[in-house]
Write a structure and sequence with these properties.
The chain has about 220 residues and is of the alpha+beta class. The chain has one domain: 2-Layer Sandwich (60s Ribosomal Protein L30, Chain: A), CATH 3.30.1330.40. The protein is built from 6 helices and 6 strands. Strand 3, helix 4 and strand 4 form a beta-alpha-beta unit. Helix 3 runs parallel beside helix 4. The longest helix has 27 residues. It is globular.
Length: about 220
């Protein structure tokens, strides 16, 4: 498990029994490179990821999909795949947010997932499939971090539960895409504080910290 994860007061029965990166490989998620995913905050107006010293990590929402949603099964299936693709992208973003400063943490140090919000685009006032669409996101997240609808679950039981989250799935938004999920996770406070002290609390990185981290990864 993760260097910081192992020191946390989690009941033994609830600790993951798998390496998160093995799940990522099984799912075919490409984590890319430092150059692709670690950038400067210069000229940007919002953060992609924010760390709190207590261990809470906030990931900004990300849109995806080509169509507004309806209860049509093909549209729902499209939305679910878009949601899974967004989960892959956010897992990649979280990976680089945790590892780029070389503080010793990675995705194996995610303790659990706290809250997800899925905003589903649909102008149909009778739309009822918002939760089904967002299940594409939640299922993919659980397949990496553990949970009852994970691809690795057997009879609804997985080798860990850190992907399970409280969630809102809301339809009724406008736009030329399918949905926008966001998520909040918990990491050990010691890791959060090490990250903040080394390079700050925000990703993309403030320019001075970006140059510092580039040298670390040179």
């Amino acid at each position: 498990m993760g260097r910081f994860y192992d020191a946390e007061p989690i009941p033994a029965e609830l600790k993951r029994n798998f390496n998160v990166y093995d799940r990522i490989k099984k799912a075919g998620i490409n984590l890319g490179t430092f150059e692709e995913h670690v950038t400067s905050l210069q000229g940007r107006n919002i953060a992609g990821t924010v760390f709190h010293s207590g261990g809470t990590v906030y990931l900004s929402g990300q849109g995806g999909g080509q169509y507004q949603m309806s209860d049509d099964p093909d549209k729902v299936k499209h939305g679910q795949q878009a949601a899974a693709d967004i989960a892959d992208s956010m897992i990649t973003r979280l990976h680089w947010a945790l590892v780029c400063g070389k503080e010793g943490g990675d995705l194996n140090d995610v303790l659990y997932t706290m809250k997800a919000l899925g905003m589903v685009v649909s102008t149909d006032v009778d739309f009822k499939s918002g939760p089904a669409v967002v299940n594409g996101f939640s299922g993919r997240w659980q397949s990496v971090f553990g949970g009852g609808i994970s691809d690795s679950a057997v009879n609804g039981v997985d080798g860990g539960w850190s992907g399970v989250h409280a969630r809102s799935a809301i339809g009724g938004f406008t736009g030329r895409f399918s949905l926008e999920p966001e998520i909040i996770v918990a990491i050990p406070s010691a890791l959060a504080q090490a990250i903040i002290m080394n390079r700050g609390w925000v990703m993309p990185l403030p320019p001075t910290m970006f140059e510092k981290v580039k040298k670390l990864n040179g």
